[in-house]
Amino acid sequence: MPTSSASNQNNLMEYLTPLWRWWWLLLASTLVATVSMALATFFEPTQYSSRSTLMIGASIRDPNPNSGELYLAQQLVTTYVDLIQRASVREPAMATLGMDWLPEYSARQVPGTQLMEINVIDTDPVRAQVVGQALIEQLIALSPEGAQEQKRADFIEQELDSLQASITETKAEIERRQSDLATLFSARQIADAQNQIDALQSKLSTLQSNFTALISTTQKGAVNTITVIEPPAVGTPVSNNLLYKLLMAAAVGFMLAAGGAYLIEFLDKSFKNSDEVQQHLGLASLGAVPEIEMATATGKRKLWRPLQPGRGAANGVHMPQGATRRLPSSALPPMIDPSLVMLHDNQSPAAEAFRVLRTNLQFAAVAHPIRSLVVSSSLPAEGKSWIVANLAIAAAQAGNRVVIMDCDLHRPRQHHIFGLGNTLGLTTALLGIEGVALEQFLQPGPLPSLRVMTSGPLPPNAAELLGSERMQSLLEVVGQQADIIVIDSPPASVLADAAVLSRQADGVLLVVHTGRTDRDVVKRTVAALQQVQAHIVGVVLNRMPTRGYGYSHHYYYYYNYTYAHKYYRRDEQLVGGVLPVTPARPTLNGKAPTPEGAPVPDSPRPPSNPGQEGVHES
Predict the structure, then answer these.
(1) Bridge partners (DSSP) listed for residue 295
(2) What is the pTM of this model?
(3) How far is CA 316 from CA 193, 204, 256, 288, in A?
(4) pLDDT, tens digit, for every residue of 374-417?
(5) Contact 383, 290 (CB under 8 A)
(6) Nearest-angstrom CA–CA distance, 274 and 259
(7) pLDDT tens digits, 280-323
(8) CA atoms within 13 A on the CB side of 409
(9) What is the C-alpha to C-alpha distance for residues 488 and 386, in angstroms, rounded to an integer?
(10) CA-to-CA distance for 549 and 23, rounded, in angstroms?
């Protein structure tokens, strides 16, 4: 049960990861939508509403209306609601008002009644009232009554009211005469009073007959009639519902940004963390190297990446103006690439990442010993040469004898990284120049236990040269003088050199540029290496961003390490900045390795080949 709960929690976090990774997009979109709606509402002119109410039918005047009349009247209301929206009402209303447009208006039936409400909204309150009255008049004109019928009905109503008043007065006069008749004693007076009563009776009969005849000609009780219950009034201000609009705008902006975030994640097929490496490749992620940041003289942080030779200093490396190093500039040879964090910034998160990678490689080699390791990538410019250099330094700082072999015979980088000459190297060693010992091809590195075999002159048949028996023999000879050989190879999906080298070495480490390398390309690379039965040790994620929840699997580690690093730096200041020195153990060449992180003196190096072509970052 706990396992299922943890699995559900992980699935939920996977769904929420795009939202957290693109939180700035969600925030920006929500703010833009909300501010835009607020500005639009602020500059929107005030709206005025004029309401009126009509009644269809006259069942309200009938003391005993039947259900059929009420139902029919309610059905007629829906017809008039639709009719008032049509051109047969709109165009005559515009012609009557002398307008070529009408403001926004709406009509609705009051639920369960015979009433219809008309609402006209306009920026002019008086115009809203006039338009409402014009719409009512045109609607009445289209009804069975019509305008003339309405006037005639009004006249008949007035006549009926007059006849009703006369009938009431006549009845009252008859009653008075009859009461006076009882007080008379003269026969003549009684006869005259009786004659007057008879005349009044005759008049009453005539009035009643006229009333009955007149009322039969009216439409009282008709179902399809229109009566104005509430005429249009001068418009009143309409509430702009600012809060509702802002909430709706914020919700729409958030939903659009969320949809965009999920779409970007769906289209993005790059690797972002170790879980994706395990899920899509079935390989272990041995480490994640963060983007390199180093302090500058202005106090800002700059990203470091090895650049092309010839674009900066004459020694082939480029250093931003004002950049400073963790260690004094005299501690290291000036021609070494400043991006070697294991030398220049030994207490940084990137340096700790290489130590973690070094340790994970040791555990990975328990069942399958690794004396020679090929480091490759799927595509160029993923930082494999930089990984090779720093990993080799990390292994040497642990007391191992390390040799770097630059087997990238197309775009070699190691001689530029370490500021070495490239006249003698791998290709010249494979050609077996007579009178030249192997030691001449291994140039000293920044640490006594680290040596570098550069590529040498570039041959036309690199794959054949790397797959030859001489290459196998060279690896065996170099392996006798080193605990581990770190081999820099070309991209595996571009050239066949990496596949050829993987057959000669004990393992392959694949470098993946986080957030850039396509998963399908890496899958094809892994399949190609597995096809030649290469032993892929694992994957290292390079240039892992240290900010953002999308990389939380490694961000937590870097955050805590950075905190610990500040703690240790504080201790160093207390003791005067002196790093602790660990006892050195002798190596096979009789020299003691320099303690991890300590500077080493400059050593003479052969001059770099001025004729060597500029190379790009690997």
Answers:
(1) 301
(2) 0.58
(3) 141, 127, 47, 27
(4) 999 988 888 889 999 999 999 999 999 999 999 999 999 999 99
(5) no
(6) 25
(7) 888 888 888 888 764 433 344 444 444 443 333 333 333 333 33
(8) 24
(9) 9
(10) 9
Of 403, 376, 377, 408, which is closest to residue 392 (Cα–Cα)? 403
Give the length of the chain. Answer: 618
Interatomic CA distance for residues 544 and 357, integer angstroms:
14
Dihedral over alpha carbons 331, 336, 339, 344 (to 10 degrees): -10
Other C-beta atoms closer than 10 Å to the C-beta of 109 total 18
Total Cβ atoms within 10 A of residue 364: 17
Residues forming beta bridges with residue 294, ordered by sequence position: 302
How many C-beta atoms lie closer than 10 Å to residue 191's C-beta? 11
Q: Which of 445, 446, 442, 526 is nearest to 477 (CA)?
A: 442
Q: Are 416 and 317 in contact (CB under 8 A)?
A: yes
Joined tokens for residue 59: 């069942």
DSSP string for 404-459? EEE--SSS--HHHHTT---SSSHHHHHHT-TT--GGGTSEE-SSTTEEEE---SPP
Could you read off the pLDDT of 517-576 as tens digits, one per residue?
888 888 898 998 989 888 999 999 988 877 654 444 444 444 444 444 444 443 333 333
Residue whose entry in the numeric block shows the structure tokens 């640490």: 447
What are the two backbone dihedrals, phi and then psi, of residue 439, each rounded to the nearest 5 degrees? -60, -25
Residue 44: what are its φ and ψ, rounded to 5°? -75, 135
Q: Which two tokens stand for residue 250?
A: 């914020």
- Which pairing describes strands 372-377 and 104-109: parallel, antiparallel, or unpaired? unpaired
Q: What does the block give as tokens for 441?
A: 């091809």
Question: Which amino acid, 90?
Answer: R
Distance CA 536, CA 521 (A): 16
Longest CA pairwise span in the chain (Å) = 176
